[in-house]
Amino acid sequence: MRLIFAALFLISSIGQAADCLTRGTGDLGIIIERAAGSVKVIETTRRKVLFRVKGLGDLSHASVVYSRDARYAYVFGRDGGLSKVDILCGTLVKRVVQGGNSIGGAISQDGRLIAVSNYEPGGVKIFSAETLALVADIPATQTPKGKGSKTVGLVDAPGQRFVFSLYDTNEIWVVDMNDPKSPKLTQFKEAGLQPYDGLITPDGRYYVAGLFGEDGLTLLDLWHVEKGLTRILSHYGKGEQQLPVYKMPHLEGWAVAGNQAFLPAIGHHEILVVDHNSWQATGRIPVYGQPVFAIARPDGRQIWVNFAFPHNDTIQVIDTETLKVIKTLKPGKGALHMEFAPRGEEVWISIRDLDQVKIFDTTTLEQIGSLPVDKPSGIFFTSRAHKTGL
Amino acid sequence: MRLIFAALFLISSIGQAADCLTRGTGDLGIIIERAAGSVKVIETTRRKVLFRVKGLGDLSHASVVYSRDARYAYVFGRDGGLSKVDILCGTLVKRVVQGGNSIGGAISQDGRLIAVSNYEPGGVKIFSAETLALVADIPATQTPKGKGSKTVGLVDAPGQRFVFSLYDTNEIWVVDMNDPKSPKLTQFKEAGLQPYDGLITPDGRYYVAGLFGEDGLTLLDLWHVEKGLTRILSHYGKGEQQLPVYKMPHLEGWAVAGNQAFLPAIGHHEILVVDHNSWQATGRIPVYGQPVFAIARPDGRQIWVNFAFPHNDTIQVIDTETLKVIKTLKPGKGALHMEFAPRGEEVWISIRDLDQVKIFDTTTLEQIGSLPVDKPSGIFFTSRAHKTGL
């Protein structure tokens, strides 16, 4: 009889364990289902959906970072929700609504802290990656209306730091979290009008803020914060001929390949080529529409570009040596996001209006597979766990 | 009664399952125990040993690559053994002795193929990553003595290729494995005398072979194999003053940081600085001994160097901006290998004669931990699964 009870106990605990997978997490990823407020957990080796996880709130503009063990995905929702998803068990481990309207997040170099930037009420909140307990609350500068500035362009940086921009008060802040109980702030004023997004170069050295209120960009060398801010590419922006801008490009998508960086022009049907050492523009590549993301294949040989409405049914591939478009693909309407396999052999593209993610071989440029995903947007593979600024 | 049988059946299958871990593999790694022919499976988050796996043969000069899901480590032993280790279960899944004396291996871009280069009988063999079944056997050019040339410097390259050098017949070969049943070979003769090791740049574009028989190095641009080989750095090598060389430096350890590459000089107490665009030498940094590995912190701000006997108790840290040694550490005799956490916050160093791996914070340059490991040599973290040429 005792044995039978033991057996029943075992059966019930197996029932739980069986829901979780014992497998490596190196080839896994998350795809955002923007309308349903859910995510699909996928694996890239056999191109399969493993789980669907629901109840993540408003994911209409969501992003994801990974724990250092690549088991947990932290999903930042538009509604200020921060959700911790276990991708081996397909479960929502915890969810906190930490702000009124959030715009992105980052994970610290050591993997212990999650930072979230907020539109409402502004500022940055920092949480324990393990428990999602609040560790630090960094309010933004007050605007004349008595509200905290919107914070944008939040990234992690080497040295256990976070960097972000203050949209309403034209600032860039660096937070040193080496002592989590007493964040050390370095604040730069006069960062240019309305910084609306930011990026950090793949080596984690340069932070660049895009400006909505004027042309040009603002550069901070994180190896030499004592030198302060530098304005670069003064002709980059909306310019005097105020063109209709259907969607501001994502700076996180900026591609660095060799000595060149490739920037989506704002409002123009162009990709700008920039010398990554001098930060001077060296060329322009005409493309099919207003670019949103320009992403380098991991070996730097190609740049893949998607576009704002009404050209968002198209993807173009640029050769980084000849600076020519070598292929124009028409994968379907709502081609919103692209993610390369970490070693670059394939790229996954969300096609919102087809409820599909399409997979392309990056050598033949042919489609080699697809997966059903409900209104897919962002795609995030676990290899991001090992990278700075992603 | 049936239930009891079911219970017993469950207990026995749980017994097996319980040995395996359900956890992410992003923070795991392997440390070679060179004398015991075993490996330790470790995790970096809590700095713990998870498993010891024995029976891997002669690991006196071993290296490791990872499956694309980061669950399996392929260990290349000196005795020609190729071992597949399950790092979630701590088990040796399979072991084949594929050659008489092997010197390293690589995994294909898509993760499906494992290539091993051999001294004896020479040539490269390519195996299924899943089963370790032989897929292709590529014999080397015969030497005048009727033996196959030793093959060295084997790396993976984008486009599902492998690249390696033939020591005895002075060649560099490229194998295209897009069709695994019919490997396509591109062979370059007159690659310089006795290429003894090779590296591929982190972007996967340039293959560089070091020469034992003459000064200089040989460069192959894999974006333009039609242009053939180029000789570079003609003063790099043992030179006319034939100094005693205690250990030829490892080319795989070459550090690329920004536009600079840092090369261990051969026989000299120096690190060479090379412009990564022009492949011209631009400087020399005096160091404590004959360098073996010169490895860049992932953000490119520091180069960490270890040394050949009798200076192998020392590690030096170089600042890549000032090109000065900023710290000399004395971690213990037999400081054989270093591995950075993927985002660079710490470095793990094998100290053979102390039977310890010591862990250093790369900001403070202070020791922050250690682990007991029997005669440790190579350290390999799973983040290598996502990189070309590692």
Q: What is this entry, summarized?
A:
The structure is a homodimer of 390-residue chains. Chain A has one helix at 2-17, and strands spanning 28-33, 38-43, 48-53, 63-66, 72-76, 81-86, 91-97, 101-107, 113-120, 124-128, 134-138, 151-157, 161-166, 171-176, 184-188, 195-200, 206-211, 217-221, 229-232, 255-257, 260-264, 270-275, 281-286, 291-296, 302-307, 315-319, 324-329, 335-340, 346-351, 356-361, 367-372, 376-381.
Write a structural description.
2 copies of one chain form a homodimer. Chain A is mainly β and 390 residues long. Chain A has a domain at 98-242: YVTN repeat-like/Quinoprotein amine dehydrogenase (Methylamine Dehydrogenase, Chain H, 7 Propeller). Chain A is 4% helix and 47% strand. Chain A has one helix at 2-17, and strands spanning 28-33, 38-43, 48-53, 63-66, 72-76, 81-86, 91-97, 101-107, 113-120, 124-128, 134-138, 151-157, 161-166, 171-176, 184-188, 195-200, 206-211, 217-221, 229-232, 255-257, 260-264, 270-275, 281-286, 291-296, 302-307, 315-319, 324-329, 335-340, 346-351, 356-361, 367-372, 376-381. The first copy, chain A, has a 4-stranded antiparallel beta sheet with strand order 3-2-1-32, with no helix packed on it. Chain A starts with a helix and ends in a 9-residue tail after the last strand. At the A-B interface, helix 1 of A face helix 1 of B.
